[in-house]
Amino acid sequence: MTHTLISFLGRGNPDRSKRYRRATYEFGAGPRQTTEFFGLGLARRIGPDRLLILGTTGSMWDVLLFSLGLGQEHDEALLALTESADADRTTQAELDRLTAVVSERLGLPVGLRLIPYGRDTGEQVEILQRMASDIAEGDAVTLDVTHGLRHLPMLAQMSALYLRRVKSVEVRGLYYGALDMTREGLTPVMNLQGLLDIADWTGAVQSFDKDGDYGVFAPLIQEESPAAAGLLQESAFYERTTRPGQARSKLRELDALLDRQPLTGIGSLFAPTLYARLSWYREDRLYLRQQALARLYLKHGDFLRAALLGFEAFITRLMQQQGMTNPDHWTQRETVKKEYETRNKTLRPRGDEYQRYCLLRDLRNHLAHGNASPQAEIQKTLASAEQLRDLLDDLFERLLP
After folding, report:
1. Contact at 8 Å (CB) between 356 and 395?
2. Is the pLDDT at 159 greater than 70, yes or no?
């Protein structure tokens, strides 16, 4: 695995006789770094395998390279680079001619790359593509946004998320040397890694809202609470295998654990969102839990589980109407179902409730087994997700009050 430090180079002051401001950067624990270009101090601090510096055609390439003291033999190339940067027309060829000497001067492989300004979506996409082309699958990166243009930190954050998702890259930090917060000669260094963690939580919420699998939250709390992460994964497994009783038991354990040891940091920010999306398990009666889950699955477009839980909720409701106290008993559930069907199927005309029951039953069987249904209404409904959603919603309204 290669660890690359990616540092952005800004446009800076139009008066190029002025250099970057020299500052002493304080990282917290460990030695301070005094430097004009924060990326070089950060490189000494974290020891990457290579350094990738990204800048535009008008970035302060000349100021950066002059600060390295490359030697008089390179003055002509540097002066030409100054003219190009002043005119906002630096070329990749000019940078390539100096890459080897910069690498030798810094003692590690260095890449000097031009990127567009990011003025529109096309240029923003191009920045991400150029970064991705320099990073191999499974590598590690650290990003420095100290000297870049003011909008580049947002692009850097997006690029970090993009690299993690597309190339399985490990992002080890997102650093900013806060020159405007310098006090008593010391400039604090901020690691904005938390922004990426917030993005992970936001993505998990979006994923859950799409498919209802709350197991996506488990990796986010693994480090802080392995026990809570394990309970969340177990519960998600039970629910996705249509065992809501076992899922509820694990969620109750999770609730008790988090009541004793609440999530902190970013987890505390999203805890109310997580609890709200798991609220179904707090229903005391099996019927209400099944009803809540059926509607939750329908909301997520999980039509199979919606039909399965909706049908089981109706059977549970029949048992409660008959005063049965053990609605989880499989044999009793089968008996109640058969008695209900026997009692109603010979009636002419058939009651509205029974017709809807048969429709839900046959729809459940079709979705579970993939067999062709003889009911024309089901065939028509399966023509689109919208029609299927509307039918299930109507059946739940009538059968699961």
Report:
1. yes
2. yes
**Dist CA 28 CA 25 (whole Å):** 9
Q: Where in the chain is the domain with CATH 3.40.50?
A: 3-191
Query: What's residue 14's pLDDT?
Result: 56
User: What six digits make up the tokens of 130?
Assistant: 């150029």
User: Which of 73-77, 251-255, 362-366 has the lowest average pLDDT?
Assistant: 73-77
According to the model, what pLDDT value does residue 385 have? 92
Round to the nearest angstrom and report the end-to-end CA distance of the chain.
Answer: 57
Angle between the 152-167 and 121-133 helix axes, to the nearest 10 degrees? 50
**Dihedral of CA 285/290/292/293: which sign?**
positive
Distances (CA, A) of 29 to 26, 32, 145: 8, 9, 21
Q: How far apart are CA 130 and CA 369, in angstroms?
A: 48
Is the predicted pLDDT of residue 15 greater than 60, yes or no? Answer: no
DSSP E strands, 47-121 = 50-55, 110-114
Mean pLDDT of 82-95: 91
Q: How much is the pLDDT for 399?
A: 94
Query: Would you say the pTM of this structure is higher than 0.85?
Result: no
C-alpha distances in angstroms, 183 versus 6, 39, 173, 224? 27, 20, 24, 34
CA distance 86 to 75: 16
- 3-191: CATH topology is Rossmann fold (3.40.50)
- DSSP letters, 225-283, are -HHHHHHHHHHHHHHHTT-HHHHHHHHHHHHHHHHHS---HHHHHHHHHHHHHTGGGG-
- Tokens standing for 340? 């209900």
Q: Rounded to the nearest 5°, which phi and psi values hold at 292?
A: -65, -40
Lowest pLDDT segment from 114-118, 152-156, 226-230: 152-156
Overall residue count recorded for the chain in this entry: 401
pLDDT at 65: 81
Average pLDDT of span 385-399 = 94
Cα distance between residue 149 and residue 141, in whole Å: 20
d(CA 187, CA 337): 73
Rounded distance, CA 371 to CA 394, Å?
Answer: 23
Please name the residue ranges forming H helices in 120-168.
121-133, 152-167
